[in-house]
Amino acid sequence: MVQSDGAPLGPDEQQVADTFARLAVELHDADGVVETVDAVAQFALQALNCSYAGIVLYTRGSGPEIAAVTDPVVTEAYKLQLDSENGPLVTSLREQITVLIPDTRAEQRWPEWSAKLATLGVRSVLDVPLLTGSGRSRTVGVLGLYSPDPDAFGADDEAIAHILARHASVAVATARHEASMAQAVDARKLVGQAMGILMERFDVDGDRAFAILKRYSQDTNTKLRDVAQRLIDTRKLPVAPQQELRPPA
C-alpha cells in the first residue's frame, strides 16, 4: 500500500491502515449499536497507544450513558464524572472539543477526579467527541482513551483517535437509524394486526379501526404500538384492568 504522494507506507502506518480496514469491515457487519461501540473500543486498543478505552453515548430522552468499556477502570472513571457532572468527559460532551490530560498527577482543571484516576493507575487521558451533522445536537458521544503512562498520547495518537471517532460517529448513527427503521416497521405490523382484530370483532372498516386505536392511545397516554400490542396479547384495550374490550361510541 502507498500514501497519496506515491511513497510506500512504513510498518507503523501499514499496521494502522490494516487496523482501520478491519474496523470498517467489522463495523459494517455489526448487528446494532452495542456491537458497534464494542468494536470501536476494542480497535482503539490496537490502533492507539492506550491500555483502556471506552465510549459514552447520548441516549434519546436521557443523558449520557456508558456504552462500552474495555476494563472496569474505565467504568470507574466515567461514573465519577457522570455522577458529578464534571470532568474531561463532560467537557468534551458539552463543548464538542478534544480534551487531553498528559498526566493526571499534574492536572489542575479537575484535581479531585485526576487524583482518583492516578490512584487507579491511569496517568494519561484523551477524550475525543463523536460528532455528526452540525449544531449543538451533533454530539453523539465521546471516545475515551486511557494509559498508565504519562504523556502517552502524542500528535499522531490524537490524529488517529479523530479518525477512529469519525468512523464511530457514522457507524453509531447508521446503527441507530437502522434500529429506528426496524422499530417503525414492527410498529406498523402491530397496528395492522390490532386493526384487523377490531375490524373483525366490531365489523368496522380500516379507518374506523385506526381511529379507535388512536383514541385509546390519546385517552390513556399510551403509545399507539403499545395499545396495539396489548390488544393483540389480551384482546383488551388499556382502559381499566378488568374492563372487556368494547367499541368506543
List keywords for this structure.
2 domains; Beta-Lactamase; elongated; Arc Repressor Mutant, subunit A; 249 residues; five-stranded antiparallel sheet; 55% helix; alpha+beta; single chain
Helix content: 55-70%
Query: What is the CATH C level class of the largest domain, in words?
Result: Alpha Beta
* Widest sheet, order of strands: 2-1-5-4-3
Gap between N and C termini:
72 Å
CATH superfamily of the largest domain: GAF domain
The second-level CATH architecture of the largest domain is 2-Layer Sandwich
Per CATH, what is the topology of the largest domain? Beta-Lactamase
The low-confidence runs, each spanning 5 or more residues with pLDDT under 50, are 1-11, 240-244
The portion of residues forming beta strands comes to 5-15%
Question: What is the molecular shape?
Answer: elongated
Major sheet summary line: 5 strands, antiparallel
Helical/strand content category: alpha+beta
Oligomer: single chain
Q: Helical element count?
A: 8
Q: How many independent structural domains?
A: 2
In terms of topology, how is this protein built?
Blueprint: H1 11-29, H2 33-47, E1 52-58, E2 64-69, H3 72-84, H4 88-95, E3 99-101, H5 111-119, E4 124-131, E5 139-147, H6 155-202, H7 206-219, H8 224-234
Helix pairs in contact: 1-2, 1-6, 2-6, 6-7, 6-8, 7-8
Task: Provide a descriptive summary of the structure in words.
This protein has helices at 11-29, 33-47, 72-84, 88-95, 111-119, 155-202, 206-219, 224-234, and strands at residues 52-58, 64-69, 99-101, 124-131, 139-147. Helices cover 55% and strands 13% of the residues. The termini are far apart. The chain is α+β, with helices and mostly antiparallel strands. 33% of the residues are buried. α1 runs antiparallel to α2 and α1 runs parallel beside α6. The protein has a 5-stranded antiparallel beta sheet with strand order 2-1-5-4-3. It has 2 domains: 11-180, Beta-Lactamase, CATH 3.30.450; 182-234, Arc Repressor Mutant, subunit A (Orthogonal Bundle), CATH 1.10.10.10.
